[in-house]
Design brief:
468 residues, alpha+beta, Arc Repressor Mutant, subunit A, 36% helix, binds adenosine-5'-diphosphate, binds magnesium ion, binds zinc ion
Length: 468
């Protein structure tokens, strides 16, 4: 039996957060009542003429530079023809063989190495409108009707296509996280997965390890979760290996990933080469990005997320560096460390308190946070938690919290503990009879009684001594 190497390529769509749409002056953004942000251009009325959005072009160039792309001296918009209810013109204005950005790369730091993933292209296009299927599931299957909201129609989208350079699901996930962070930092897009402002297609094939052939791939379309993408890739790799080892062939098809089911059912089978009858958009002239503008953008790009992971991993573990940077927290971390906090402690607090909760940290005062991080062991847990929840509020001061001291003195805690044991004689007897799981109950009571000020370590110790 041979061993197999997975081959993965990604196509990522990112919605730009420009004020207006790609080729008209309609508002670009969520929140409008359906079909209120429309005009003859984005509704595809005959004779309406598109005018490109300068901002969208500039932002695509910035992203291209961050991805080490060549910026075209001449880029062309093409018509991509196909019929669908969410596409009133029956063509999408996109870019084809002369995209704005091409031949780039992105190095992806991982715990064991830094694979460089080729960026085939990054181009600009308009989004389609949104189909809303009237069904409990929201899916087309079983729907009684489909409504179309044209507010999204004609909004600017950047599509980023990678080379098939990725060979495991973990690297694919890291690539996507790094790209998302890059896009967010450049201010191009919120890239919010839940809102669909970043979504991706995942192409997967496998080949005998050591060969460099490209076998037939399948595509998982329109994903918006990094974990599901990784899971979908794993599942597809396993399936294709099974097919080959049973002597079968993999069909080129588009699959729908449903995390709730083991199978990824086919959505539609894909032609070998789809005939979109691309031709240059006759209503738009080619784009010639001025050299001095591109040069200026190049100098404006700061240190990118991948480089920061690398740099911070010299001080912290790779894992901590990765969590801080892809969580958008490393700049705050640096400021907190500069203000005197211990680097590892600061990383722990940020990762535990802000990554998981998704807290907006833009208004956090690094100096006050540094004080809290340093005082963490000396102040009551409840005070620490409360302070962290408020650290981003205007005028926040850590001082009142630092004034609260944790009670670690046994002579102060013993009377409280005695009282609680006495009041819970039944549980105490059960504990002594071997039900040691009740320790937590007693500790909890003491913490409650002391308003969260007791040092849980000391309480644990004293309760155990008294009951044992
Ligand atoms: P299309 O335009 O039909 O989507 P592309 O050639 O542009 O096809 O490729 C789309 C994506 O599929 C790219 O990210 C590319 O890296 C990836 N890809 C192409 N061939 C393979 C393959 N054999 N295995 C895995 N991914 C592939
Ligand atoms: Mg594709
Ligand atoms: Zn419009």
């Amino acid at each position: 039996m041979s061993t197999w190497e997975p081959v993965i390529g990604l196509e990522i769509h990112v919605q730009l957060k420009t004020e207006t749409k790609m080729f008209c002056r309609c508002r670009n953004g969520f929140g409008g009542e359906p079909n209120t942000q429309t005009c003859p251009v984005c509704l595809g009325f005959p004779g309406a003429l598109p005018v490109p959005n300068r901002r969208a072009i500039e932002e695509t160039i910035k992203l291209g530079l961050a991805l080490d792309c060549e910026i075209a001296e001449r880029a062309v918009f093409h018509r991509k023809n196909y019929f669908y209810p969410d596409l009133p013109k029956a063509y999408q204005i996109s870019q084809y063989d002369e995209p704005l950005c091409s031949h780039g790369k992105l190095a992806v730091p991982t715990p064991d190495g830094e694979p460089v993933i080729g960026i085939t292209r990054a181009h600009l296009e308009e989004d389609a409108a949104k189909n809303i299927h009237v069904a409990a599931s929201g899916r087309i299957r079983g729907a009684t009707a489909t409504l179309v909201d044209f507010n999204r129609g004609g909004t600017p989208l950047v599509e980023i296509v990678t080379e098939p350079d990725i060979h495991d699901s973990e690297t694919a996930k890291r690539f996507l996280q790094l790209l998302r962070q890059t896009v967010v930092e450049l201010g191009l897009s919120d890239a919010e997965l839940e809102k669909g402002s970043m979504r991706f297609d995942v192409n997967v094939s496998v080949r005998p390890a050591g060969s460099d052939e490209l076998r037939t791939r399948t595509e998982l379309k329109n994903m918006n979760s990094f974990n599901f993408a990784a899971k979908g890739i794993e599942r597809e790799i396993a399936r294709q290996i099974r097919v080959y080892e049973e002597g079968g062939t993999v069909e080129q098809e588009t699959l729908h990933f449903d995390p709730a089911h083991e199978e990824s059912p086919p959505m539609r089978s894909k032609e070998e080469a789809q005939d979109y009858r691309y031709f240059p958009e006759p209503d738009l002239v080619p784009v010639h990005p001025p050299e001095d503008l591109v040069d200026r953008f190049r100098t404006e790009i700061g240190e990118l997320p991948g480089a920061r992971i690398r740099r911070i991993a010299d001080t912290l573990s790779f894992y901590d560096a990765d969590v801080l940077v892809t969580g958008g927290l490393d700049r705050l971390w640096s400021a907190v460390v500069d203000a005197g906090a211990d680097p590892k402690e600061a990383a722990n607090v940020l990762a535990n308190q802000f990554v998981a909760t998704g807290t907006d940290v833009s208004a956090v005062d690094a100096g006050e946070l540094a004080k809290l991080v340093q005082a963490r062991a000396e102040i009551p847990r409840a005070a620490f938690d409360e302070a962290l929840a408020k650290v981003g509020e205007a005028g926040f001061s850590a001082d009142p919290y630092l004034a609260q001291k944790v009670v670690a003195d046994a002579s102060e805690l013993d009377p409280v503990i005695d009282r609680i044991i006495e009041a819970n004689a039944g549980q105490a007897a059960q504990y002594r009879g071997g039900k040691h799981g009740l320790l937590g109950f007693f500790v909890g009571q003491v913490m409650k009684e002391t308003g969260g000020k007791a040092d849980p370590r000391v309480v644990n110790e004293r309760v155990r001594a008294k009951l044992g």
